[in-house]
Amino acid sequence: MNDEMTQMKSRRGLGKGLGALFETVPQEEQTTKSERIVELSINRLEPNHEQPRQDFDKDRLDELTESIRDQGVISPIIVTPTSSSDRYMIVAGERRWRAARAAGLQTIPAIIRELTDAEAQRQALIDNVVRQDLNTIEEAVAFDQLIKQYDMTQESLATAIGRSRSAVTNTLRLLNLPENIRDMVRRGELSSGHARALLALSDASAQSNAAAVVLAKQLSVRDTERLVKEINAPPAPPVPRTPDDERKDLHVRSVEEQLRRSLGTKVTIQDHKTGRGSIVIRYHSADELDRLLELLTRE
Asked: Using one digit for the tens of pLDDT, what is the confidence trace for 172-189?
């Protein structure tokens, strides 16, 4: 059983609202007088450049190519005529078309539909969402387009595609991430779980910095959630300074000044606590280092 058959089975588990709203039941069973299934030349087809799916996983495409080479194309693609004579735009099924072309097929079964540009775009969006061919960011973009262009609510969209409203909402929230993090999700460097955890940070800069840490340390989603909580934790209140602290600061500054005059360069006393600390002596050239060494080692 090839990849297409598995996808078709998964679609049958969706809610009834999908077929009623968008007519996405198997097209072989749903052709009307205004559409027909034909064998079209591979070279007479062109992709829909406005479709939401932009990334085609090479390994999965190779698997589908081998499946089509062995069993052919089981599910017809959907196309619509273009303004160019004898050419068609792919509305749904670009991955099958790419795989069929790679498998060396000369023709591919297709359902020809007379669609307006808006209808073609809607069909492409729904087909990709139902088939689960989109990465999480592409899916979020598709949801956003369906809601804005076709006056859908999150509730009606969730019902149509057989998901919970919270799932739709959480997917849409990913569009609030900066573009660099969305690209990480598209490339599979971050999962949608990582991305949702980063949304708890207040601004794009903090989100990007945290994402860099996640990638560098290969953090799990749970570790990422902990990192975000630490970043969002309020800073510790300042420790009140006592008169003794002030006197110590005055003494340290006095010693630094004495050393500066003696050595002729900047000197800093660091981590001065309970009589312990470090003395940092600055120099700016090899000659100056030699001079300081001579001063410090002179009897």
From this structure: 999 999 999 999 998 889
pLDDT in the model for residue 2: 41
Q: Residue 232 domain-assigned?
A: no
Question: Does the residue 229 lie in any domain?
Answer: no
Select from 161, 189, 211 the last residue of a domain. Answer: 161
Q: Are residues 204 and 265 in the same domain?
A: no
Q: What would you measure as the largest C-alpha separation in the chain, in angstroms?
A: 107
Same domain, 19 and 88: yes
Encoded tokens for 108: 């591919």
Mean pLDDT of 74-100: 88
User: Which tokens belong to 90?
Assistant: 């792919």
pLDDT of amino acid 277? 81
Look up residue 163 and give its DSSP letter.
-
- Distance (Å, rounded) from C-alpha 6 to C-alpha 64? 12
Q: With the CA atoms of 294, 251, 267 and 277 taken in that order, what torsion angle do they form, in degrees rounded to the nearest 10?
A: 90
Residues 215 and 209: their CA atoms lie apart, in Å, by 10
- Tell me which residues are annotated as active site: 94
Q: What is the pLDDT of residues 23-73, one digit of tens each?
A: 333 333 345 545 678 899 999 998 887 665 666 678 878 888 999 998 899
* Both tokens assigned to 64: 């589908």
Same structural domain for residues 201 and 104? no
DSSP annotation string for 73-106? --S-EEEEE-SSTT-EEEEE-HHHHHHHHHTT-S
Predicted local distance difference test score (pLDDT) of residue 185 = 93
| 15 and 157 part of one domain | yes
What domain range includes position 189?
A: 177-223
Whole-number Å distance between alpha carbons of 207 and 180: 10
